[in-house]
Prior knowledge:
The protein is α+β, with helices and mostly antiparallel strands.
Amino acid sequence: xxxxxxxxxxxxHCGARYNVAHGCYRCYSRSKTxxxxxxxxxxxxxxxxxxxxxxxxxxxxxxLAFNKSYANQMFEQCxxxxxxxxxxxxxxxxxxxxxQISRMIDLYxxxxxxxxxxxxxxxxxxxxxxxxxxxINKDAPSLEKQREQFFRTLSQFDEIFGKNAQSTLEQRRxxxxxIIESIWIxxxxxxxxxxx
Length: 196
């Protein structure tokens, strides 16, 4: 793993990983350097010069680090794509269902609605509450904690890539892979999937 983006770059045409050969990031299927990694022997996706693709990614990380609204937008987009469970939103929804159940009980006590209507409605609300409780991912960090970690990592950009930074390749690779899960190449288009 002697390059900044090693193991992060994938081909959007065939799904193969990119490797480094002859000064370029190249689709394994196209470079045919390892038979076991070839997915489509006819793939013709673009080869990217190492310095060029590295610089595009570094520029994107710089933009994320110093443009908070863009970074928020990217975070939200990645969270949506990855299906990140927002436990806070689910807990808020559970609270609303509890409030509805409480109102139903109040209506019964006042005598406004017959017991069978209230009972049916409460059963539906209880089922909704149970489904919401089951959808909470108890092991996952909250979306806000993930956001904090994302921005905490981005705040280290200058230490790693700044003018006076003295970071090693491994430190730069660790920084990049802490933010980026994968990079997908489709000719000239580069799609970055964040690690959220």
